[in-house]
Amino acid sequence: MSVKNRCVCAMVLMIGGLLWAPTEPLLGQAGAWTGWITDEKCGPKGPSLEHKDCTLKAAKDGGKVVLYDVDTKRHLPLDDQELAQRHIGYLVTVRGSIKGNAITVASIERAPEARAAAAGSVTGTAGIGASQVLCTALSPDALGRTTSRAYATTNSQFDNATLKHCEYRGGADVVSVTLALGAGARERFDTSTKFPGVQAVPGIGDIANWEPVRGTLSVFAGMRSVEVRVSPSHGTAVLRQEHARRIAALVLGR
């Protein structure tokens, strides 16, 4: 190989290395990861508050608690198991550094809505039924306690026994909730799967999808489907999805 060809090859390799350079922190380098404290044994059910008991049981039986990274969809081992177990089932930000194949934990901080959930879970409610008016059953105050925002007005485009809608507004903050009941619920949910970039969401309902473009969570559970759209003013995509999860849990009573 000529000197010229060797130089060209070296440049190609160097450029390729830059293109494929990892975006995650390197070994020993400080970083931050956002995700759910769960465990590998509970599988896709683990990343949610609703399935906290699954992870607690697995940890009691000797299972290792891990971080389910919402960006990479991977389980990341954590060295400080005692600290991690205090946050099982919650959306958190873990700060630390990579050592071997695990995160050496410096701190774990729950997301704002996860801290609110610790004070009082929304699970165990009966959910909203066909005879209830959505804007009344899910009041602006109840919604505000879930998202830590204030909503001043509501607007309903329709509200009947099979399809209900309510929009909540508070300045730039807008939340739209649509609830379908009965035979048409599954068909409405299936429509949400046709949007580009749809992502499966574990741990809520029978099946759930997140549409990042519209900022909408669609959940199907027991002949009911709910769509929750959260405006960008509510924060990052991760926080918006978590807001939507908790609102859906209020509506479905899960």
Account of the 3D structure:
The chain is α+β, with helices and mostly antiparallel strands. It folds into two domains: 30-110, no CATH class; 122-252, Protein Transport Mog1p, Chain A, CATH 3.40.1000. The chain is 30% helix and 30% strand. The chain is built from eight helices and twelve strands. The protein has helices at residues 3-19, 52-60, 81-85, 112-119, 134-137, 140-147, 185-192, 237-252, and strands spanning 30-39, 65-69, 74-77, 91-99, 102-110, 153-155, 163-170, 173-181, 199-200, 207-211, 216-220, 224-230. The strands form two sheets. A seven-stranded antiparallel beta sheet has the order 6-7-8-12-11-10-9, with helices on both faces. The chain has a five-stranded antiparallel beta sheet with strand order 3-2-1-4-5. A hairpin with a 2-residue loop joins strand 4 (91-99) and strand 5 (102-110). It is elongated and about 55 Å long. The protein starts with a helix and ends with a helix. 36% of the residues are buried. Residues 3-23 and 113-125 have low confidence and may be disordered.
The top level CATH class name of the largest domain: Alpha Beta
Number of strands: 12
N-to-C CA distance: 67 Å
Q: Percent range for helical residues?
A: 25-40%
What CATH calls the topology of the largest domain is: Protein Transport Mog1p, Chain A
Count up the helices: 8
How much of the sequence is in beta strands? 25-35%
Overall geometry comes to: elongated
Could you state the order of secondary-structure elements as H and E? HEHEEHEEHHHEEEHEEEEH
Q: Major sheet: order of its strands?
A: 6-7-8-12-11-10-9
Mean pLDDT: 79
Number of domains: 2
- For the report, how would you describe the main beta sheet? 7 strands, antiparallel
> What is the gyration radius calculated from CA atoms?
22 Å
Structural class: alpha+beta
CATH architecture of the largest domain: 3-Layer(aba) Sandwich
Low-pLDDT residue intervals, each spanning 5 or more residues:
3-23, 113-125
